[in-house]
Amino acid sequence: MKNKVAVVGFGMIKFGELFEKSYEDMMSEAYLNALKSVDNGIDQKEIQAAWLGTCIGSIIKREILTGASLAEPLSFMPRPVSRLENACATGSDAFRNACFAVASGAYDVALALGAEKMRDVPPIESLQGVVARGMHPIYARGMTAPAVFAFYANRHMHDFGTTKQQMAYVAVKNHKNGALDPYSHFQRPIKLEDALKAPMVCSPLGLFDCCPVTDGAAAVIITRAELAKKYTDTPIYVAGLGLATDTFNLASKPDFTTFYATVEAGKEAYKMAGIGPDDIDLAEVHDCFTITEILDTEDLGFCKKGEGGKFIEQGNTEIGGKIPINPSGGLKSKGHPIGATGVAQICEISWHLRNEADKRQVSGAEIGLTHNLGGTGSVASVTILSNKQL
To answer: What is the CATH number of the domain that holds 373?
Structure first.
């Protein structure tokens, strides 16, 4: 897989509450932006297959969501489109499957597109019943995403002394970065006291510890590495891919200080790329809640277990720090339209590796990592990208 696939086009739309845009509008706009980004041009007919990542079809009021949902608005017919869902790792797994198809030689050029229309219904309806599914009825009572991740926050605070203020630093950093990102849902910085004094959602997680419910779409075009220079002088190579799973049931988890799926997916991606955490220049990680970014930072090997809070508080994850994390603003500020999130992360890393990220540019970036975490920590996807063949 290593060095066999290159990203040659990437595009997305501004994330937010996009009531004025339909699901098809969002997909089409992201797709057109990806086509326009291909430096040397590309004929749409050269794209032989596509993978569509959408997590919850019922949000957009469809009982059945298939590849045809992408094929018709994009005039992609009769070419094959596979619709994929893998919780919050949906977009990155759509990209992963497209990469495997191209690396196998089945296709020369393929599209991975992620989209989610979440704000046309009240927030409680967009994820209602998903988090609690599969749990014992007693554990499922009142179970929401903030409640799930509050378990992790409280245990990490108990075991390692992580503080509410350290979690607030994550929010402040990501809002600061999001203010520089034209695609971000929230484009204003916040102060530390704003995060600390925000209304409580599920202790210890306050309002600014939680990512928003967001609409959005993103798309990337990939090709076989040996064909990449036909489309662009600055291809981005896929160096490593990892995917792993863990139990969905909270009662079955051995502890609440590690996302084991993240650890295993990271190991797989690092091994495939032939590098380690110290070689990564920047990362887009899954910060659905501020505590999640702290655990991600540890689980991906950027710091030791239990030191994530201090590591972030010391400024190591700022743009210009030891390992810039979420220069886009992350899910916390950019937003989390589930199916689009992973693909958008790949767009962000690609911009940095091509020195095209404007005011949020990570200087000298050559190798980047993306990470998605799904469910209760039950699935994780890690992608490693580079602007050179490793």
So the answer is: 3.40.47.10
